[in-house]
Amino acid sequence: CGEKEWCLDFSTPGHFDYAHSIVATNDGGCAVILRYTGITPPQTDRICLAKIDAEGILLWKKCYNSTDPNLISEDSRALLRTPDKGYLITGVCDYYDVSHHLHPKQYYIKTDSLGNFQWETVINPEDPSTGGDAWTTFLNPDSNYYYSSVSHYYFETNFSSPALIKMSLSGNVINIYNIVDGYIQGGLTYAQFINDSTLAAICAYGNEQNDMVTLAVQIDTVGNITNSLDLGTNTHGKVLEVTYNNKLLFFYYILQNDQSDVYLRKLNQNLEDDTIYTMPFTYDSLCPYQILSDTIVQDDCGLIVGIEEEEEEEHGGMEAWEHGGLIIWPNPAREQIHVRFYMDDGRFYKDLGLEIYDIFGRKAIEINVPDGQNELQLNVEDYPPGIYLMMLKDGRTVQVSAKFIVTR
Description:
Blueprint: E1 18-24, E2 30-35, E3 48-52, E4 58-63, E5 71-81, E6 87-96, E7 102-111, E8 117-122, E9 130-139, E10 146-154, E11 159-167, E12 173-178, E13 185-193, E14 198-206, E15 213-220, E16 225-233, E17 235-242, E18 248-256, E19 259-267, E20 314-315, E21 318-319, E22 321-323, E23 326-329, E24 336-341, E25 352-358, E26 363-369, E27 375-379, E28 386-394, E29 397-406
Antiparallel strand pairs: 1-2, 2-3, 3-4, 5-6, 6-7, 7-8, 9-10, 10-11, 11-12, 13-14, 14-15, 15-16, 17-18, 18-19, 20-21, 22-23, 23-24, 24-27, 25-26, 25-28, 28-29
């Protein structure tokens, strides 16, 4: 129904944090790329991956700082689930070639299902003449090759071609196929297979920013354009999706006079505008009530920061943390914490279970709360120092949550 079930806010004091390219996982959770979330200066922890379960609990967060001395300024673009249930991060880095010149190169990181680093690939790392930027990566229908839509740079001629990179599942480059040659600017973004031998993609090229041509294209697996539709100049392609019935959805915007017009365009497999449906449709909904437009307020968003997180109120002369009817004191704690909970109208919750998780999403304790009891005392002297999340749940539903800190 569009209601908020949970949210997480990754925030590093003094840093600009970013999160993007989220993918669903088979367990109902998701994985998301995080950028610049380290406590250390933002030049480190530039690419991280976080796994979140279906209830919004952070299970783990892994960062990937390359040990290659020639590789710097890595950045991420997209995330893909791999056939072995791992993850492939697509992006770009700056790399010192054999002449010790620094050039942008397409860059990939592969992890296992738990986010453990397995390998990294820089495309043509030692070649001083070529490089580029990678935008998305996807699997062929047989799931035995990676294909990546990229910008392919030629530094000696200052040309940039929209291109397709074919790689093995171990990250070895099989070939690079240029889609269009001979232009100063060019890139292929958001490509996807629409059958065993044909891909749809957004292709852009030109010699000046204000005369870039953007096409919806169909290409074969070696980069030959088999069909195209001009989406206009000054067009910036953003997203391509293939629907369940193999229609193509192109999302893009056109920039004119410092203003942007946003378009969602639906095409059939011949790159023709999809037929206008004149018959009436009845749409079923899983939501049992009428959905109204509204604004979702991001309160109590499970903020994940450093251990320096500020305490809030006082309770009985001790620092306490209170939110939505859940009070924890003392906070920070060394040996014991006291917990009290009640509903917003002052009544007590019933049939509750209490769960505590550490900052990595590992469950520290689970307690069934006896009916009528609204206050607990817990021993935390054996807990490692850090931030913990306490949740009161009625079955699988989180009624209220709050954080506390254990110190030494």
